[in-house]
Amino acid sequence: MNLLTLIVGQPSTGKTTSLRNLGKDAIIINCERKELPFLSNGAVNYPLGKRAATPGTETKPAIPAMSAKEHMYFVLDQVNASDKFKYVIIDSFSAYADMIMAESKAKYKGWDIMTNYNTAVYDFFEKLKELKNKFIFVISHVEYLSDADGNTVIRTKVKGKEWEGLVEKEATCVLYSRFQKKESGNGVFYQFVTNSDGYLPGKTPMNMFDTETQLYVDNDLKMIIDRYREFYKLDENLKKIVDVSAMV
Predict the structure, then answer these.
(1) Which of 15, 34, 54, 71 has a CA-to-CA distance to 218 between 20 and 30 Å?
(2) What whole-number distance in Å separates Cα of residue 53 and Cα of residue 36?
(3) What DSSP designation does 211 have?
(4) pLDDT tens digits along 21-65
């Protein structure tokens, strides 16, 4: 089982904070390389960027220097080979894409810059698809554009033309983050939009969330994961539970 969810929204709308109730079976690949906005509940916070070479020891082999892309693939390969983590969070795709662009500009010129960037974005999502029995959450910033008719287009922020409006197709679920003022007027509460509300184009499988009562839900990934488990009938190892009676 491999379920990829995009979490898209403006800064300070609760995207990273939604990770607050995840535990030691979660790894946050922190491309932002900043402190988490909550006290970790055991989740591993792994900062990702360029990596310097690591000399070998008697018990560990040497590791060569890595670009951000190579480092990302190195970590994902380690995660895929281990049963330690069930939940993989990329925070954020926007920061990782910036690293890819910087590396492309340093290595290429002219049109080759965007060609390398677009290929790297494609390779990134293909790499995520290799992860087995994991829930994958990719956090991203949002951009607002206008189409030819003057309508507002809301989508995942990405550079260049090739991936414009197409990042979402890589995900089974797209949750948009937002905040609402409390009726008391004091403070706000943070939510995910699970399906299109006519403005934010959320996306989840049919009947996973009741569009009448669960169009807006609390920004709690633990709750989202529990709903995924229930909807797809998954066991503790994120494998589908077989209904033996239906096979007889």
Answers:
(1) 34
(2) 26
(3) T
(4) 999 999 999 999 999 999 888 999 999 999 998 888 888 888 899
